[in-house]
Amino acid sequence: MSVLSGKKILLGVSGGIAAYKTATLVRLFIKAGADVQVVMTPASKDFVTPLTLSTLSKNPVHSTFYKEEDENGLWNNHVELGLWADLMLIAPATANTLSKMVNGNCDNLLIATYLSAKCPVYFAPAMDLDMYKHPSTLAGFQTLKQFGNTIIPAESGELASGLSGEGRMAEPENIIAFIEKDLENQLPLKGKNILITAGPTYEAIDPVRFIGNHSTGKMGFDIAESAAKSGANVILVSGPTALEVKNSNIKLVRVTSASQMFEACHQFYKEVDVAICAAAVADYKPKYTANQKIKKSDNSFTIELEKTKDILASLGEIKQNQFLIGFALETENEIENAKLKIQKKNLDLIVLNSLQDQGAGFATATNKVTIIDSQFVVEPMPLKSKEAVADDIINKVILHYEKNS
Ligand code: CTP
Predict the structure, then answer these.
(1) Domain total in the chain
(2) Distances in Å between the alpha carbon of 96 and those of 131, 136, 165?
(3) Please, are residues 4 and 32 in contact by the beta-carbon 8 Å criterion?
(4) What is the pTM (predicted TM-score) of this model?
(5) How far apart are CA 94 and CA 80, in angstroms?
(6) Which domain holds residue 22?
(7) Is 325 in the pocket of ligand 1 (CB under 6 A)?
Protein backbone atom coordinates (compact mmCIF):
# COMPACT_ATOMS: atom_id res chain seq x y z
CA MET A 1 0.00 0.00 0.00
CA SER A 2 1.34 3.43 -0.93
CA VAL A 3 2.18 5.91 1.79
CA LEU A 4 -0.02 8.29 -0.26
CA SER A 5 -3.11 6.20 0.44
CA GLY A 6 -5.74 8.32 2.20
CA LYS A 7 -3.68 11.49 1.81
CA LYS A 8 -5.32 14.73 0.66
CA ILE A 9 -3.25 16.09 -2.20
CA LEU A 10 -3.59 19.60 -3.54
CA LEU A 11 -2.09 19.83 -7.01
CA GLY A 12 -1.23 23.32 -8.25
CA VAL A 13 -0.80 23.49 -12.01
CA SER A 14 0.93 26.44 -13.64
CA GLY A 15 1.16 27.34 -17.31
CA GLY A 16 3.91 25.41 -19.04
CA ILE A 17 3.80 22.71 -21.69
CA ALA A 18 4.50 20.09 -19.00
CA ALA A 19 0.99 20.82 -17.66
CA TYR A 20 -0.31 18.15 -20.07
CA LYS A 21 1.49 15.58 -17.92
CA THR A 22 -0.59 16.49 -14.88
CA ALA A 23 -3.38 14.27 -16.23
CA THR A 24 -1.09 11.29 -15.63
CA LEU A 25 0.01 12.73 -12.32
CA VAL A 26 -3.58 12.96 -11.07
CA ARG A 27 -4.25 9.39 -12.23
CA LEU A 28 -1.21 8.10 -10.38
CA PHE A 29 -2.19 9.91 -7.17
CA ILE A 30 -5.71 8.44 -7.39
CA LYS A 31 -4.28 4.98 -8.11
CA ALA A 32 -2.13 5.32 -4.99
CA GLY A 33 -5.33 5.89 -2.99
CA ALA A 34 -5.00 9.66 -2.54
CA ASP A 35 -7.78 12.22 -2.64
CA VAL A 36 -6.89 14.97 -5.15
CA GLN A 37 -8.03 18.55 -5.67
CA VAL A 38 -6.55 20.72 -8.40
CA VAL A 39 -5.88 24.46 -8.49
CA MET A 40 -4.87 25.90 -11.86
CA THR A 41 -3.39 29.21 -12.91
CA PRO A 42 -5.36 30.87 -15.75
CA ALA A 43 -2.42 30.29 -18.16
CA SER A 44 -2.27 26.56 -17.46
CA LYS A 45 -5.75 26.09 -18.94
CA ASP A 46 -4.20 26.58 -22.39
CA PHE A 47 -2.16 23.40 -21.87
CA VAL A 48 -4.59 21.09 -20.12
CA THR A 49 -8.31 21.50 -19.64
CA PRO A 50 -10.01 21.79 -16.23
CA LEU A 51 -12.49 19.19 -17.50
CA THR A 52 -9.68 16.65 -17.95
CA LEU A 53 -8.36 17.24 -14.45
CA SER A 54 -11.76 17.38 -12.75
CA THR A 55 -12.77 14.13 -14.46
CA LEU A 56 -9.59 12.37 -13.38
CA SER A 57 -9.52 13.82 -9.87
CA LYS A 58 -13.28 13.33 -9.41
CA ASN A 59 -13.37 16.81 -7.87
CA PRO A 60 -14.16 20.27 -9.25
CA VAL A 61 -11.07 22.16 -10.41
CA HIS A 62 -10.42 25.61 -8.92
CA SER A 63 -8.85 28.39 -10.95
CA THR A 64 -10.44 31.73 -10.10
CA PHE A 65 -11.25 33.63 -6.92
CA TYR A 66 -14.93 33.34 -7.81
CA LYS A 67 -16.87 30.24 -8.65
CA GLU A 68 -17.50 31.03 -12.31
CA GLU A 69 -20.67 29.00 -12.58
CA ASP A 70 -22.24 30.87 -9.66
CA GLU A 71 -24.20 33.97 -10.65
CA ASN A 72 -23.74 35.45 -7.18
CA GLY A 73 -19.98 35.27 -7.57
CA LEU A 74 -19.45 32.91 -4.63
CA TRP A 75 -15.92 33.16 -3.26
CA ASN A 76 -13.53 30.26 -3.90
CA ASN A 77 -12.10 29.69 -0.46
CA HIS A 78 -8.33 29.34 -0.93
CA VAL A 79 -7.77 29.29 2.84
CA GLU A 80 -10.05 26.29 3.20
CA LEU A 81 -8.31 24.56 0.27
CA GLY A 82 -4.90 25.27 1.74
CA LEU A 83 -5.93 23.89 5.12
CA TRP A 84 -7.67 20.85 3.58
CA ALA A 85 -4.46 19.51 2.09
CA ASP A 86 -2.04 17.08 3.74
CA LEU A 87 0.41 17.89 0.99
CA MET A 88 0.62 20.46 -1.81
CA LEU A 89 2.46 19.80 -5.06
CA ILE A 90 3.04 22.55 -7.60
CA ALA A 91 3.73 20.86 -10.92
CA PRO A 92 4.72 22.14 -13.31
CA ALA A 93 6.21 25.08 -11.43
CA THR A 94 7.09 27.60 -14.13
CA ALA A 95 9.68 30.36 -13.66
CA ASN A 96 6.81 32.84 -13.35
CA THR A 97 4.98 30.84 -10.65
CA LEU A 98 8.23 30.17 -8.78
CA SER A 99 9.02 33.88 -8.68
CA LYS A 100 5.50 34.59 -7.38
CA MET A 101 5.94 31.92 -4.68
CA VAL A 102 9.22 33.53 -3.65
CA ASN A 103 7.74 37.02 -3.46
CA GLY A 104 4.24 36.21 -2.28
CA ASN A 105 2.87 37.87 -5.40
CA CYS A 106 -0.67 36.73 -4.93
CA ASP A 107 -2.47 37.54 -8.19
CA ASN A 108 -4.00 34.12 -8.79
CA LEU A 109 -5.78 31.44 -6.80
CA LEU A 110 -2.83 29.04 -6.94
CA ILE A 111 -0.50 31.47 -5.16
CA ALA A 112 -3.23 32.50 -2.68
CA THR A 113 -3.71 28.82 -1.85
CA TYR A 114 0.05 28.27 -1.63
CA LEU A 115 0.35 31.13 0.85
CA SER A 116 -2.53 29.69 2.91
CA ALA A 117 -1.24 26.11 2.95
CA LYS A 118 0.19 24.87 6.23
CA CYS A 119 1.09 21.44 4.86
CA PRO A 120 4.40 20.38 3.28
CA VAL A 121 4.84 21.85 -0.21
CA TYR A 122 6.71 20.18 -3.07
CA PHE A 123 7.40 21.87 -6.38
CA ALA A 124 8.51 20.37 -9.68
CA PRO A 125 10.14 23.08 -11.83
CA ALA A 126 9.70 23.03 -15.60
CA MET A 127 11.43 25.49 -17.88
CA ASP A 128 13.98 25.80 -20.63
CA LEU A 129 17.60 24.94 -19.78
CA ASP A 130 18.96 28.50 -19.64
CA MET A 131 16.03 29.64 -17.50
CA TYR A 132 16.63 26.68 -15.17
CA LYS A 133 20.27 27.69 -14.70
CA HIS A 134 19.66 31.43 -14.38
CA PRO A 135 20.93 32.88 -11.07
CA SER A 136 17.47 34.31 -10.44
CA THR A 137 15.91 30.82 -10.71
CA LEU A 138 18.62 29.22 -8.56
CA ALA A 139 18.23 31.94 -5.92
CA GLY A 140 14.47 31.29 -5.98
CA PHE A 141 15.04 27.58 -5.32
CA GLN A 142 17.20 28.48 -2.33
CA THR A 143 14.57 30.83 -0.92
CA LEU A 144 11.82 28.25 -1.35
CA LYS A 145 13.96 25.62 0.37
CA GLN A 146 14.40 28.08 3.24
CA PHE A 147 10.61 28.41 3.36
CA GLY A 148 10.61 24.64 3.99
CA ASN A 149 9.42 23.70 0.49
CA THR A 150 10.93 20.70 -1.27
CA ILE A 151 12.19 20.81 -4.84
CA ILE A 152 11.64 17.82 -7.10
CA PRO A 153 14.54 18.46 -9.48
CA ALA A 154 13.89 18.83 -13.18
CA GLU A 155 15.19 16.10 -15.46
CA SER A 156 17.40 16.27 -18.52
CA GLY A 157 16.14 15.61 -22.01
CA GLU A 158 14.53 17.15 -25.02
CA LEU A 159 12.81 20.41 -24.22
CA ALA A 160 9.81 22.04 -25.88
CA SER A 161 12.16 24.69 -27.35
CA GLY A 162 13.93 21.98 -29.33
CA LEU A 163 17.01 22.36 -27.15
CA SER A 164 18.19 19.51 -25.03
CA GLY A 165 19.27 19.73 -21.40
CA GLU A 166 18.12 20.12 -17.82
CA GLY A 167 14.78 21.78 -17.15
CA ARG A 168 12.18 19.24 -18.16
CA MET A 169 9.62 18.57 -15.42
CA ALA A 170 10.32 15.24 -13.70
CA GLU A 171 8.18 12.46 -15.19
CA PRO A 172 4.92 11.89 -13.25
CA GLU A 173 6.07 8.41 -12.12
CA ASN A 174 9.29 9.93 -10.79
CA ILE A 175 7.41 12.73 -9.00
CA ILE A 176 5.21 10.16 -7.25
CA ALA A 177 8.22 7.99 -6.35
CA PHE A 178 10.08 11.05 -5.03
CA ILE A 179 7.20 12.10 -2.78
CA GLU A 180 6.55 8.54 -1.59
CA LYS A 181 10.20 8.06 -0.62
CA ASP A 182 10.34 11.44 1.09
CA LEU A 183 7.17 10.69 3.10
CA GLU A 184 8.40 7.19 3.97
CA ASN A 185 11.63 8.62 5.34
CA GLN A 186 9.63 10.84 7.66
CA LEU A 187 7.48 8.03 9.10
CA PRO A 188 7.84 7.78 12.89
CA LEU A 189 8.90 4.12 12.99
CA LYS A 190 11.17 4.26 9.93
CA GLY A 191 14.13 1.93 10.50
CA LYS A 192 12.52 0.11 13.44
CA ASN A 193 12.08 -3.67 13.38
CA ILE A 194 8.99 -5.00 15.10
CA LEU A 195 8.11 -8.59 15.94
CA ILE A 196 4.40 -9.34 16.37
CA THR A 197 2.68 -12.62 17.27
CA ALA A 198 -0.91 -13.27 16.21
CA GLY A 199 -3.63 -15.88 16.00
CA PRO A 200 -4.22 -19.12 17.85
CA THR A 201 -1.91 -22.10 18.12
CA TYR A 202 -2.97 -25.65 17.37
CA GLU A 203 -1.59 -28.38 19.61
CA ALA A 204 -1.86 -31.77 17.94
CA ILE A 205 -3.61 -34.66 19.69
CA ASP A 206 -3.25 -36.99 16.72
CA PRO A 207 -2.86 -36.41 12.94
CA VAL A 208 -6.44 -35.07 12.64
CA ARG A 209 -7.28 -33.47 15.98
CA PHE A 210 -5.86 -30.57 17.91
CA ILE A 211 -6.46 -28.28 20.90
CA GLY A 212 -7.01 -24.74 19.70
CA ASN A 213 -8.99 -21.59 20.45
CA HIS A 214 -11.27 -19.07 18.75
CA SER A 215 -8.63 -16.41 17.99
CA THR A 216 -8.89 -15.17 14.38
CA GLY A 217 -5.59 -13.28 14.47
CA LYS A 218 -7.30 -10.00 13.52
CA MET A 219 -5.91 -7.96 16.44
CA GLY A 220 -2.31 -9.01 15.71
CA PHE A 221 -2.70 -8.52 11.95
CA ASP A 222 -4.16 -5.03 12.53
CA ILE A 223 -1.21 -4.16 14.79
CA ALA A 224 1.16 -5.38 12.07
CA GLU A 225 -0.58 -3.19 9.44
CA SER A 226 -0.52 -0.17 11.75
CA ALA A 227 3.20 -0.65 12.52
CA ALA A 228 4.04 -1.05 8.82
CA LYS A 229 1.96 2.04 7.97
CA SER A 230 4.14 3.93 10.47
CA GLY A 231 7.27 2.87 8.60
CA ALA A 232 8.39 -0.18 10.61
CA ASN A 233 9.70 -3.43 9.17
CA VAL A 234 7.40 -6.03 10.64
CA ILE A 235 7.90 -9.74 11.24
CA LEU A 236 4.48 -11.22 11.91
CA VAL A 237 4.57 -14.71 13.41
CA SER A 238 1.07 -16.08 13.14
CA GLY A 239 -0.70 -19.25 14.09
CA PRO A 240 -3.33 -20.74 11.72
CA THR A 241 -5.57 -18.01 10.30
CA ALA A 242 -7.29 -17.18 7.04
CA LEU A 243 -5.95 -13.62 7.11
CA GLU A 244 -3.44 -12.21 4.64
CA VAL A 245 -1.11 -9.23 4.99
CA LYS A 246 -1.56 -6.15 2.83
CA ASN A 247 1.57 -4.09 3.45
CA SER A 248 4.75 -5.27 1.74
CA ASN A 249 6.79 -4.21 4.79
CA ILE A 250 5.29 -7.15 6.70
CA LYS A 251 7.10 -10.48 6.55
CA LEU A 252 4.57 -13.15 7.50
CA VAL A 253 5.89 -16.31 9.15
CA ARG A 254 3.16 -18.92 9.49
CA VAL A 255 3.42 -21.46 12.30
CA THR A 256 1.02 -23.99 13.79
CA SER A 257 1.99 -24.89 17.35
CA ALA A 258 3.16 -22.95 20.40
CA SER A 259 6.61 -24.51 20.19
CA GLN A 260 6.96 -23.46 16.53
CA MET A 261 5.88 -19.93 17.49
CA PHE A 262 8.44 -19.96 20.32
CA GLU A 263 11.23 -20.97 17.91
CA ALA A 264 10.26 -18.39 15.29
CA CYS A 265 10.10 -15.57 17.86
CA HIS A 266 13.52 -16.42 19.28
CA GLN A 267 14.96 -16.57 15.80
CA PHE A 268 14.08 -12.91 15.21
CA TYR A 269 13.97 -11.36 18.70
CA LYS A 270 17.62 -10.26 18.95
CA GLU A 271 17.29 -8.16 15.80
CA VAL A 272 14.11 -6.32 16.75
CA ASP A 273 13.46 -3.06 18.58
CA VAL A 274 9.91 -3.90 19.61
CA ALA A 275 8.02 -7.15 20.27
CA ILE A 276 4.26 -7.29 20.64
CA CYS A 277 2.74 -10.63 21.67
CA ALA A 278 -0.89 -10.60 20.60
CA ALA A 279 -1.20 -14.34 19.92
CA ALA A 280 -3.59 -16.50 21.91
CA VAL A 281 -0.98 -19.16 22.58
CA ALA A 282 -2.21 -22.45 24.03
CA ASP A 283 -1.13 -22.69 27.64
CA TYR A 284 -1.15 -26.50 27.55
CA LYS A 285 -0.48 -29.11 24.89
CA PRO A 286 -0.96 -32.88 24.81
CA LYS A 287 2.02 -34.56 26.45
CA TYR A 288 2.03 -37.19 23.72
CA THR A 289 0.84 -36.82 20.13
CA ALA A 290 -0.47 -40.06 18.66
CA ASN A 291 1.07 -41.05 15.33
CA GLN A 292 -2.19 -42.58 14.12
CA LYS A 293 -5.77 -41.36 14.46
CA ILE A 294 -7.05 -42.33 17.90
CA LYS A 295 -9.95 -44.77 17.60
CA LYS A 296 -12.94 -44.39 19.87
CA SER A 297 -13.25 -47.15 22.43
CA ASP A 298 -14.03 -46.39 26.06
CA ASN A 299 -16.83 -44.13 27.22
CA SER A 300 -14.41 -41.61 28.52
CA PHE A 301 -11.06 -40.53 27.29
CA THR A 302 -8.28 -38.57 28.99
CA ILE A 303 -5.53 -36.54 27.41
CA GLU A 304 -2.57 -35.72 29.58
CA LEU A 305 -1.52 -32.12 29.07
CA GLU A 306 1.72 -30.32 29.78
CA LYS A 307 2.47 -26.63 29.87
CA THR A 308 3.71 -24.89 26.74
CA LYS A 309 6.60 -22.46 27.07
CA ASP A 310 5.43 -18.90 27.75
CA ILE A 311 6.84 -17.04 24.73
CA LEU A 312 6.21 -13.56 26.12
CA ALA A 313 7.83 -14.38 29.47
CA SER A 314 10.83 -15.92 27.70
CA LEU A 315 11.28 -12.73 25.65
CA GLY A 316 11.01 -10.67 28.86
CA GLU A 317 13.77 -12.78 30.44
CA ILE A 318 16.33 -12.06 27.73
CA LYS A 319 15.14 -8.52 27.01
CA GLN A 320 17.88 -5.98 26.27
CA ASN A 321 16.71 -2.76 24.61
CA GLN A 322 13.51 -4.20 23.18
CA PHE A 323 10.23 -2.47 24.01
CA LEU A 324 8.08 -5.44 25.01
CA ILE A 325 4.29 -5.43 24.89
CA GLY A 326 2.02 -8.23 26.06
CA PHE A 327 -1.70 -8.85 26.16
CA ALA A 328 -3.71 -10.07 29.11
CA LEU A 329 -7.15 -11.58 29.09
CA GLU A 330 -8.62 -11.45 32.57
CA THR A 331 -12.05 -12.09 34.01
CA GLU A 332 -11.50 -10.93 37.60
CA ASN A 333 -9.20 -8.51 39.46
CA GLU A 334 -8.29 -7.38 35.97
CA ILE A 335 -6.05 -4.37 36.66
CA GLU A 336 -4.21 -6.02 39.56
CA ASN A 337 -3.59 -9.22 37.62
CA ALA A 338 -2.40 -7.25 34.59
CA LYS A 339 0.03 -5.27 36.75
CA LEU A 340 1.37 -8.53 38.18
CA LYS A 341 1.89 -9.81 34.64
CA ILE A 342 3.90 -6.66 33.75
CA GLN A 343 6.31 -7.52 36.55
CA LYS A 344 6.33 -11.27 36.10
CA LYS A 345 6.99 -11.09 32.34
CA ASN A 346 9.24 -7.97 32.45
CA LEU A 347 6.98 -5.94 30.12
CA ASP A 348 7.00 -2.27 29.16
CA LEU A 349 3.30 -2.22 28.41
CA ILE A 350 0.35 -4.53 28.75
CA VAL A 351 -2.90 -4.41 26.80
CA LEU A 352 -5.69 -5.69 28.98
CA ASN A 353 -8.74 -7.27 27.37
CA SER A 354 -11.77 -7.80 29.46
CA LEU A 355 -14.19 -10.47 28.32
CA GLN A 356 -16.82 -8.78 30.48
CA ASP A 357 -17.06 -5.89 28.02
CA GLN A 358 -19.51 -6.34 25.20
CA GLY A 359 -17.84 -6.14 21.78
CA ALA A 360 -14.42 -7.10 23.16
CA GLY A 361 -12.35 -10.24 22.69
CA PHE A 362 -12.30 -13.01 20.10
CA ALA A 363 -13.97 -12.98 16.70
CA THR A 364 -15.34 -9.45 16.95
CA ALA A 365 -14.46 -6.45 14.79
CA THR A 366 -14.16 -4.29 17.90
CA ASN A 367 -12.16 -4.34 21.09
CA LYS A 368 -12.17 -2.53 24.41
CA VAL A 369 -8.83 -2.47 26.11
CA THR A 370 -7.00 -0.83 28.98
CA ILE A 371 -3.35 0.01 28.43
CA ILE A 372 -1.06 -0.15 31.47
CA ASP A 373 2.60 0.83 31.38
CA SER A 374 5.52 -0.31 33.52
CA GLN A 375 4.97 2.69 35.85
CA PHE A 376 1.44 1.30 36.35
CA VAL A 377 -0.22 4.24 34.64
CA VAL A 378 -3.65 2.86 33.71
CA GLU A 379 -5.36 4.15 30.56
CA PRO A 380 -8.84 2.74 29.85
CA MET A 381 -9.84 3.09 26.18
CA PRO A 382 -13.39 3.24 24.80
CA LEU A 383 -14.82 0.50 22.60
CA LYS A 384 -13.17 0.89 19.18
CA SER A 385 -12.58 -1.01 15.97
CA LYS A 386 -9.60 -3.36 16.19
CA GLU A 387 -7.82 -1.16 13.62
CA ALA A 388 -8.19 1.85 15.95
CA VAL A 389 -7.01 -0.19 18.96
CA ALA A 390 -4.00 -1.26 16.87
CA ASP A 391 -3.25 2.41 16.11
CA ASP A 392 -3.47 3.23 19.85
CA ILE A 393 -0.93 0.52 20.64
CA ILE A 394 1.43 1.63 17.87
CA ASN A 395 1.07 5.26 19.00
CA LYS A 396 2.38 4.15 22.40
CA VAL A 397 5.43 2.70 20.65
CA ILE A 398 5.91 5.95 18.70
CA LEU A 399 5.58 7.96 21.93
CA HIS A 400 8.20 5.76 23.59
CA TYR A 401 10.73 6.55 20.86
CA GLU A 402 9.83 10.24 20.80
CA LYS A 403 10.47 10.43 24.56
CA ASN A 404 13.76 8.58 24.25
CA SER A 405 15.16 10.24 21.15
N1 CTP B 1 1.62 -15.78 25.89
C2 CTP B 1 2.71 -16.31 25.26
N3 CTP B 1 2.99 -17.64 25.35
C4 CTP B 1 2.20 -18.46 26.06
C5 CTP B 1 1.06 -17.92 26.71
C6 CTP B 1 0.80 -16.60 26.61
O7 CTP B 1 3.45 -15.55 24.61
N8 CTP B 1 2.50 -19.76 26.10
C9 CTP B 1 1.38 -14.34 25.82
C10 CTP B 1 0.22 -13.92 24.94
O11 CTP B 1 0.59 -13.71 23.61
C12 CTP B 1 -0.23 -12.64 25.62
C13 CTP B 1 -0.02 -12.98 27.07
O14 CTP B 1 1.03 -13.91 27.11
O15 CTP B 1 0.58 -11.54 25.27
C16 CTP B 1 -1.29 -13.60 27.54
O17 CTP B 1 -1.31 -13.86 28.80
P18 CTP B 1 -2.67 -14.48 29.43
O19 CTP B 1 -3.69 -14.77 28.40
O20 CTP B 1 -3.10 -13.57 30.48
O21 CTP B 1 -2.22 -15.80 29.89
P22 CTP B 1 -1.10 -16.17 30.91
O23 CTP B 1 -0.05 -15.14 30.99
O24 CTP B 1 -0.68 -17.52 30.47
O25 CTP B 1 -1.76 -16.18 32.32
P26 CTP B 1 -3.08 -16.87 32.85
O27 CTP B 1 -3.60 -17.70 31.73
O28 CTP B 1 -2.62 -17.64 33.98
O29 CTP B 1 -3.95 -15.72 33.18
Answers:
(1) 2
(2) 11, 11, 20
(3) yes
(4) 0.86
(5) 24
(6) 8-185
(7) no
